[in-house]
Design goal:
The chain is mainly β. 5% of the residues lie in helices and 68% in strands. It has a 26-stranded antiparallel beta barrel. Strands 10-11-17-18-15-16 form a six-stranded mixed β-sheet, with no helix packed on it. It has a four-stranded antiparallel β-sheet with strand order 3-2-5-6, with no helix packed on it. β47 (825-838) and β48 (844-851) form a beta hairpin. The longest helix has 24 residues, at 3-26. The two termini are 49 Å apart.
C-alpha cells in the first residue's frame, strides 16, 4: 500500500472520528424556547433576533428569529448556564438567565415582555438599541453586533460584511471605491498600522464599533488645528469588557502534495498595555496563513512563506507612551507567466509578441519600528519615530520570446537568462516638536526627518537572439552588472500658526531639504567561461553623484466654520539640482524656481450632505537615471538611452466630491470627479529598428491628461447589504514612435455590484460581480481601435446544516475577451469546504478543503499601455486537498 493511500485513509478516519464524537456530544444537548411580546399594543415582533450567550464569557452560542407569534427556539444547546438577550429597535434591552441540564432536555423561559423606550431630546428621538449604521458628521460608524460574523471570525471577515467596504485578494481595503490608508485600534496603530496583520490577527468578537472617516494628520491632533490633510482611516473600537485579557489562535493544516501550514497568534491586552506575537509558515496558498505574503496575492504562482511579528505598547509615567514592532518575512515564489502583447505602430504594422517567463524568487525582509511620544507639559509635545528595514532578494528568470509581424512573419525569437542578487537597508528617524502659546491656538512646530538607504546588486544576463527578418543573423549578449546605489536626505522645517480672527488661521512655514544620491554601476562582458574580461563595458558603466537642495516657503490661510472649511495656500520653491558624472568628469546643473498654489473647500451643505472641491499644482523633477547621458541594454533587444535635457513636469489636479448619508435607510451615495493635466510630461520616444530592436529615450511632451469619474452607492437592508461601484476613466498619453507623435486614448468603464446577505444563523452569502470594458485608440497617421471586456464573479457561501457543522463554497470565475491573442478566456476557480466546530464553546474548528476543484490553476490579467494591449496568465497552486485544525482561546 503506497503512502498516498495511507494518508487518505488517515484523513478519512480522523474525519469520521471527529464527526462521530460530535454526534455523541449532540445527543446530550438541550432545547431552550420561549415567547417575546409587546406589553402595550402587542406589536408584531416577527423577524426580530433573540441571542443566547454563555454566562461565563459572553460567547454567542445561537440566534433565533421570532415568528409571527413571538416564539423563539434554540436547538442542540450544550448543558450549562446561559443568558437570553433581546434587543429590538424601540424597546428596552431585556436579558434573562437560564440553566439547562441533562435531566431537562426541553427548557422553556416562558413569556418575556418588552417595554418601549423612547426619550425626546431637542426633538431628536434617541433609542437605546444602537442602529447598525450611524452618521456623526463625516464619520460612518458601524455597530459590529449588527453584522453577524461566524464563530471565530477575524476582523477581516467582519469588514467584508460592512456595506461600502471591499477587501481585495491582496488584503487591501476599499471604502466606497477609495483605498484605506490607515487602520487604528482604539485610535492608535497596531503592528505599526500594518493593515493585513491587524485585520487577520484580531478576532471580530472583541470589536464594538468600526469607524470610517477622513482623519486629520498627527500634527493636527497634537496642536488642535486642522491643517487640511486627510487620511482615509478605519478605527476599530474594542469592547469595554475585551480590553483586558489574553486571546489568540493556533492553527495547523496538512494536505496532498506535501502541503502544510502552521501558525498562531497570542495577544495580551491590559487596557493601555499591549503585547502581541504572530508566527506563520506555509507552502500552501491558504488564506489562513497569508498575513505575511509580501509579493502579489496568495493565488499568484507557487508560494512558500513564513513570518514572525511582535508588537508592544506601553505607557510610562503620566504623559509618555511607547510602541514598537518587529516583523520578519521570508517568501519564495515560483511562477510561470504566459504573456501575449499586441503592439500597434502603424495601420499596416502590428506585431504580436509571445513571451514565456519562468521565475524563481526568494526574498527576505526585516522591519523594526520604535515610536515614543508624550508631553513635557500641557503646552509642549514631542514625537520621535525611528525605523530600520533590511531586504534581501534572489531572483532567477528564464524568458523565451517570439516577435511576429502582423501575426504572420517571424521577426526574431530569443532566449534570455537573468540572475539577480541584491540586498539593501534603510535607516530613518523623524522628530516632531510642538509648542502651544497662551494665546488660543497660537502654535510653533519644528520637524526634522533623516533617512539613508544603501543597496548592492549583482545582475548577470545571458541573451541569445535569432533574427529571421529582414536578414537572418544571430547575436549573443553575456554580461554582468554590479550596482551600488545609495541615498540620504535631511529635512528640517519650522511652522508658525497664528489665529487672525475668529475661526480664521494663518500658517507660515519654512522647510529646508538636502538629498544626496550616488549610483556606481560597473558592467562586464563575459567570456564563455563566464569570467569578467580585463576591460569593463565603459559605455554602460557609470559613476554618478547628485545633490538636490530645496528651500520651501509656505503661506496658508484657512477659515473653519461649523459647516465648512476653506484652505488656500501658496508655496514658493527654490531648487538646485546638480549631477556629477565621475567618469567623464562633467557637471550638469539645473535650477528651478516654482510657485504652486492650492485650494481646498469642504462644505457641509445640510445634515448628511458633504461637498469637497480641491485644486493644486505640483512639480516633479526627472530622475537621475533619466538624466544620465548613457546607453544601456540587458538583452540587446531593448536599448535605453538617457536625456540630459529633460525638464521638470508640471501637474495640475482638480477634485470635486459629493457625498450623501441617508440616516433614514443608512445608505451612502458618493460621487467623485478628478482631472489631471500634465505639462512637460516625461514620456518615451521609441524607435523600432528593422530587426525588431526597440530603442527608447525619455522626452518631454505636452497634451497628456486623465479624467476619472466614480459613483458609489451602498444600502443595508434586512439582514443584507447591497452596493454598486462604478467608474469611468479617460486617458490621453502622447509619445514619439519612429519620429512621429502618437496619441493613445484609453477609455475604461468599470462596474461592480455586490450583495452580502445573512439569511439566518444557518446561511450567509457574499456575491460580487466585476466588469471592465476598455477601448483604446491609437492616432498617428490613421486611427487604430481595439477593445477588451473583462468579467469576474466572486461568490462566498456558507451553510450550517446543524449548529456545529458547516459547508462553504468559494468561487472566482473570470471571463476575458478581446485579448491580444484574440481568443476569449474562461477561468472558473472553485473551492469547497466542510467542517465542524468542536467542544461546547466551539473553540476548535476542523475543516477539509478542496481548493481549485476544476484544477484550472491560472490567474489572468489584461493591461493597456501607450501602443500595446497585453494579456497575461500566471500559474497558481492548482487542485489540492487540505485538512485544517484551528483552536481559538479567549480569557477576559
Amino acid at each position: 500500500m503506497n503512502k498516498k493511500k495511507i494518508h487518505i485513509r488517515c484523513l478519512l478516519m480522523i474525519t469520521s472520528l471527529v464527526f462521530l464524537l460530535g454526534n455523541i456530544a449532540a445527543s446530550q444537548n438541550t432545547s431552550i424556547n420561549g415567547f417575546v411580546k409587546d406589553t402595550i399594543d402587542f406589536s408584531d415582533l416577527s423577524g426580530s433576533k433573540v441571542k443566547l450567550v454563555r454566562s461565563i464569557d459572553d460567547t454567542l452560542m445561537a440566534e433565533s428569529e421570532l415568528n409571527s407569534a413571538g416564539f423563539f427556539n434554540f436547538k442542540n444547546i450544550p448543558t450549562g448556564n446561559y443568558q437570553i438577550n433581546i434587543d429590538v429597535l424601540g424597546y428596552r434591552h431585556i436579558s434573562k438567565n437560564v440553566k439547562s441540564s441533562a435531566e431537562n432536555t426541553i427548557l422553556s423561559s416562558g413569556t418575556i415582555y418588552l417595554v418601549k423606550y423612547v426619550i425626546l431630546l431637542d426633538t431628536v428621538i434617541i433609542k437605546n438599541t444602537p442602529e447598525p449604521i450611524t452618521f456623526k458628521k463625516d464619520t460612518i460608524e458601524y455597530h459590529a453586533e449588527s453584522f453577524l460574523a461566524q464563530h471565530n471570525a477575524s476582523v477581516e471577515d467582519l469588514l467584508r460584511k460592512l456595506p461600502g467596504l471591499i477587501i481585495t485578494a491582496e488584503g487591501k481595503i476599499l471604502a466606497n471605491g477609495k483605498e484605506i490608508s490607515q487602520i487604528l485600534v482604539d485610535n492608535e496603530p497596531f503592528f505599526n498600522g500594518d493593515i493585513k496583520l491587524t485585520t487577520r490577527t484580531l478576532p471580530a468578537e472583541i470589536i464594538d464599533k468600526i469607524q470610517l472617516y477622513n482623519s486629520n494628520s498627527e500634527l493636527s491632533n497634537l496642536i488642535g488645528i486642522d491643517d487640511g490633510q486627510r487620511i482615509k482611516t478605519i478605527n476599530l473600537k474594542i469592547k469595554k469588557n475585551r480590553k483586558k485579557g489574553i486571546f489568540g489562535q493556533a492553527a495547523t493544516s496538512v494536505g496532498t502534495n506535501n502541503l502544510f501550514g502552521f501558525g498562531g497568534s497570542l495577544n495580551n491586552f491590559n487596557n493601555k498595555k499591549q503585547l502581541s506575537l504572530v508566527s506563520q509558515i506555509t507552502n500552501a496558498n491558504d488564506p489562513l496563513f497569508s498575513s505575511f505574503i509580501t509579493t502579489g496575492s496568495i493565488n499568484t504562482g507557487i508560494n512558500k512563506s513564513s513570518g514572525l511579528g511582535g508588537n508592544f505598547k506601553n505607557n510610562f509615567g503620566k504623559n509618555w507612551k511607547a510602541d514598537g514592532t518587529y516583523i520578519e518575512t521570508n517568501q519564495t515564489n515560483k511562477s510561470i507567466q504566459d504573456i501575449v502583447a499586441k503592439n500597434i505602430y502603424t495601420p499596416d504594422s502590428t506585431t504580436i509578441q509571445t513571451l514565456k517567463n519562468s521565475s524563481n524568487r526568494d526574498s527576505k525582509s526585516q522591519r523594526i519600528n520604535l515610536n515614543i511620544s508624550g508631553k513635557f507639559s500641557n503646552r509642549n509635545n514631542l514625537v520621535i519615530r525611528s525605523n530600520f528595514n533590511k531586504n534581501r532578494l534572489f531572483n532567477n528568470q528564464l524568458q523565451n520570446s517570439i516577435l511576429k509581424l502582423n501575426n504572420r512573419d517571424t521577426i526574431y525569437h530569443s532566449n534570455n537568462t537573468n540572475n539577480v542578487s541584491s540586498k539593501s537597508f534603510e535607516l530613518g528617524s523623524n522628530l516632531l516638536f510642538t509648542h502651544s502659546f497662551k494665546t488660543y491656538k497660537r502654535s510653533l512646530v519644528y520637524t526634522t526627518d533623516f533617512r539613508c538607504t544603501d543597496s548592492k546588486s549583482i545582475d548577470s544576463n545571458f541573451s541569445k537572439n535569432y533574427y529571421v527578418s529582414p536578414n537572418k543573423k544571430e547575436s549573443t549578449l553575456n554580461q554582468k552588472r554590479n550596482s551600488n546605489p545609495n541615498s540620504s536626505f535631511l529635512t528640517s522645517g519650522i511652522s508658525f500658526f497664528e489665529p487672525v480672527a475668529k475661526d480664521q488661521m494663518v500658517q507660515i512655514s519654512y522647510n529646508f531639504r538636502i538629498v544626496k544620491k550616488s549610483i556606481f554601476t560597473k558592467v562586464f562582458s563575459l567570456d564563455t567561461l563566464e569570467r569578467p574580461s580585463d576591460i569593463d563595458d565603459s559605455l554602460q558603466s557609470n559613476k554618478t553623484k547628485s545633490n538636490l537642495i530645496n528651500q520651501e516657503l509656505l503661506l496658508k490661510y484657512q477659515i473653519q466654520k461649523s459647516n465648512f472649511s476653506l484652505f488656500v495656500a501658496n508655496t514658493l520653491n527654490f531648487q538646485t539640482f546638480k549631477v556629477y558624472d565621475l567618469i567623464t568628469n562633467s557637471l550638469t546643473t539645473r535650477k528651478y524656481k516654482t510657485f504652486t498654489p492650492s485650494i481646498n473647500l469642504e462644505y457641509n451643505l445640510t445634515a448628511g450632505k458633504f461637498l469637497q472641491f480641491g485644486y493644486n499644482i505640483s512639480n516633479q523633477q526627472p530622475d537621475i537615471s533619466q538624466l544620465q547621458n548613457l546607453t544601456t541594454t540587458n538583452d540587446s533587444l531593448y536599448i535605453q538611452k538617457g536625456n540630459p535635457s529633460l525638464k521638470q513636469m508640471w501637474i495640475h489636479n482638480v477634485l470635486l466630491g459629493y457625498r450623501i448619508n441617508f440616516q433614514s435607510n443608512q445608505s451612502v451615495i458618493n460621487f467623485d470627479l478628478n482631472g489631471t493635466l500634465i505639462h512637460n510630461d516625461i514620456q518615451y520616444s521609441t524607435s523600432i529598428l528593422k530587426d525588431g530592436t526597440q530603442v527608447t529615450q525619455p522626452i518631454n511632451v505636452n497634451g497628456s491628461y486623465l479624467v476619472t469619474g466614480s459613483l458609489d452607492y451602498s444600502l443595508p437592508f434586512k439582514k443584507s447589504s447591497f452596493q454598486i461601484n462604478s467608474s469611468i476613466n479617460y486617458t490621453q498619453n502622447r509619445a514619439m514612435l519612429n519620429d512621429r507623435m502618437v496619441n493613445t486614448n484609453n477609455y475604461n468603464l468599470r462596474g461592480k455590484i455586490g450583495v452580502n446577505s445573512t439569511i439566518n444563523q444557518s446561511f450567509s452569502m457574499t456575491l460580487t460581480y466585476n466588469t471592465t470594458l476598455g477601448y483604446a485608440t491609437y492616432v498617428s497617421e490613421k486611427k487604430i481601435k481595439t477593445n477588451f471586456f473583462l468579467q469576474n464573479l466572486l461568490a462566498n457561501i456558507k451553510y450550517f446544516p446543524a449548529p456545529s457543522y458547516f459547508l462553504s463554497l468559494k468561487s472566482d470565475i473570470n471571463h476575458n475577451s478581446g485579448l491580444a491573442q484574440q481568443k476569449a478566456l474562461l477561468l472558473p476557480i472553485l473551492s469547497i469546504s466542510a467542517g465542524k466546530y468542536l467542544f461546547t464553546n466551539k473553540k476548535m474548528e476542523m475543516k477539509i478543503t478542496i481548493s481549485d476543484l476544476l484544477n484550472k490553476n491560472k490567474v489572468a490579467s489584461t493591461s493597456v499601455n501607450q501602443n500595446s494591449i497585453q494579456s497575461m496568465q500566471i500559474n497558481s497552486r492548482g487542485r489540492y486537498l487540505l485538512l485544517s485544525l484551528i483552536y481559538n482561546f479567549r480569557k477576559f
